Amino acid sequence: MMDFLETVGQAGEHGDGSADRTSSAWRAVTQAGVMMDVWLARHLGRKPRYLPIVLAFMTFRCNLSCRACGVEFQHDETKRELTTGEWKRALDSMARLRTSIISISGGEALLRPDIFEIIAHARRRGIAVHLCSNATRIGARTARRLAEAGTHTVSVSLDGSRPAVHDAIRGKGSFEATLAGIRALRQHAPGVRIGINTLVTTVNAADMLPLLALAESLGAHQVKFAPVHTNLLHRDKPVDAYGDLMFRTEDEIRGLEIEVARLIRASRRSRVQVNPAAYLEGIADLYRTPRRFRCFAGHAVCAIGPTGEVTPCCDMSGGPSIRTRPLEEIWLGDAFHVLRQEVRHCRAPCWDTTNTELSLRLSVRNLPAVLPDTWRALRFYF
Questions:
Q1: Residue 72 neighbours by CB under 8 Å, 6+ apart
Q2: Whole-prediction pTM
Q3: 53-57 and 193-200 as β-strands: parallel, antiparallel, unpaired?
């Protein structure tokens, strides 16, 4: 089995198109073995051999100042961001760890002029590239460069179906700039699949169905809805700065549940994929008593910060740095396994679209019900 995985894993490491097509044909088989190892490692408490997904925060700099976002409090101008070469070496490590997806984010990753070179290197190493962006900096030239570099998918932050809703969260004028970016992608990078990331707040909860309709009209393939958190990347931002966006009273939470139920029904008739029902149904409980789940952070996924720190989850800080040790050495090492074990005892109020949704999909109880949807979700990224 290991020899087979070695052979399949190398199929995407060549730059020619035929090799890439061959690798995509075998990807599902390869990842079945990788995810089985990850699943067993999580249940047995051992180190996983592979690292399927990497969240790469390229920078905490951003051209917007969104109300619920706390990355500005994470940004430290005294610390130098990873260089192009350091990210390339990390990508080489990811290839050896059989990483399938790198989700590039920030801040706004498009503020880095070397982002296209980094994406192209990931593609050469057989890693599917998912970019998270506010899209306000995407015009015709940037869209073409993203496609030429090999970007598979771009998820755009869009919090409303009209300016009054979106701009109340993301800033005046950002709605039109974001839609222009999405349209540029559709026109100049037609092979790049488009997703939309929506932060569900008291401002836009009643706008989820119109936003789903807008996403369909824009040609988006996916919409991910996520609740407002007080931890994760936002843990250092004072809650008073955005507390009115959170659902605090029982009437507000009940109203959220009604809107989520409407969304689930509407999504069954839409060609646009949304989060699985098991995830959507748990959003409201984040503001009551958060549901508990067996988290796969540190087993199926890790986060790498702009200055190189590696942690199981972006809610954690102070991990070892890829500046001083190769990523595979960190991932397979004893020190990181101590951090990984902390995840098993985590009690943070969390319901995010990466670790939570992935963990729900890997749950034995949910697996039979979400298997067809999981296959559809994977197709979005590949």
A1: 60, 62, 65, 237
A2: 0.90
A3: unpaired
